[in-house]
From TrEMBL:
InterPro entries: AAA+_ATPase (IPR003593), ABC_transporter-like_ATP-bd (IPR003439), ABC_transporter-like_CS (IPR017871), ABC_transporter_ATP-bind (IPR050166), P-loop_NTPase (IPR027417). Pfam families: ABC_tran (PF00005). Keywords: ATP-binding, Nucleotide-binding, Transport. This is ABC transporter ATP-binding protein. Gene3D superfamilies: P-loop containing nucleotide triphosphate hydrolases. It comes from Cellulomonas chengniuliangii. It comes from the Bacteria. Residues 5-238 form the ABC transporter domain. GO terms for molecular function: ATP binding.
Length: 268
């Protein structure tokens, strides 16, 4: 089966001379179709850069990125992606509903279908009552939820998310994490998800990619084995399950090891 994402020997260097930054150095990663993969690591280790390369918002200095077997550019033009980044990136002159409908309108979907889908998505992220509001009438967290609804609009086969829940309060964050898992199970979308939270990465992911900075590298890919096949209540119950805490400890150890290895190499 074709991988959702195939990153081969990718490097990305910014600047030159004294200002040269090796944001990514020879990074390779495969994300299978339907798989949920998180990128975690200290600030500046290249998580966002890697996501932007997969999204074709930037081009690698060396190496290649394939999405569903074709170059990232082609995949983007074929609307394979849904993207939700740190900044919600909503159009301020459009209502919440119109923002969510935008990708559907661009894809040529009729008015009634668009409206129905937008209502469903806004209900999913808990914003059904805010459809006629404008983005600047919402809190940052609510804007982020609109961006998530928009990213899901076209039922993409690949979702790229850069700390989408970072600005949310803990309860909303947990609710959206659970909903995201449900949506992914329904749509079988693959997800590449950047986060600073180890529990979030563990709760959501089939695999957690641990990165380290200067130069940005993949240190370890930790598989997570949690049974996410149950109901929404079962999923929530996982948060207090011993296996969840065991997996957190494993990823945490990998992260600490990655950082100390990077420091040792930097010193050497
Ligand atoms: N457009 C750019 N021009 C110059 N340097 C850049 C650019 N984008 C990223 N960098 C550098 O590349 C490195 C990796 O940045 P990136 O944003 O990918 O890290 P990150 O792991 O996502 O960090 P954070 O967790 O803080 O968001 C950093 O040193 C950053 O300064």
């Amino acid at each position: 089966m074709t991988a959702a994402v195939q990153v081969d020997g990718v490097s990305r260097v910014f600047g030159s001379g004294a200002g040269r930054v090796v944001a990514l150095d020879d990074v390779s990663l495969t994300v299978a179709a339907g798989q949920f993969v998180s990128l975690i690591g200290p600030s500046g280790c290249g998580k966002s850069t890697l996501l932007r390369l997969i999204a074709d918002l930037d081009a690698p200095t060396a190496g290649s990125v394939q999405v569903f077997g074709r170059p990232a550019r082609e995949a983007r033009l074929a609307h394979e992606y849904g993207i939700a980044f740190q900044q919600a990136g909503l159009l301020p002159w459009r209502t919440v509903r119109a923002n969510v409908e935008l990708p559907l309108a661009l894809a040529g979907m009729g008015r009634a279908g668009r409206r129905e889908r937008a209502e469903h998505l806004l209900a999913l992220v808990g914003l059904a009552d805010f459809a006629e509001h404008f983005p600047d009438q919402l809190s940052g967290g609510m804007q982020q939820r609109v961006a998530i609804a928009r990213a899901l609009a076209e039922e993409p086969s690949l979702l790229l998310m850069d700390e989408p829940f970072g600005a949310l309060d803990e309860m909303t964050r947990e609710r959206l994490q659970t909903q995201l898992l449900r949506i992914c199970a329904e749509t079988r979308a693959a997800v590449v998800f950047v986060t600073h939270s180890i529990p979030e990465a563990v709760f959501l992911s089939d695999r957690v990619v641990v990165m380290s900075p200067r130069p940005g590298r993949i240190r370890e890919v930790a598989p997570v084995t949690l049974d996410r096949s149950g109901s929404l209540e079962d999923l929530d119950a996982l948060r207090t399950d011993a296996t969840f805490f065991d997996e957190i400890a494993t990823v945490r150890a990998a992260l600490l090891e990655g950082v100390s290895l990077a420091q040792a190499e930097g010193a050497g």
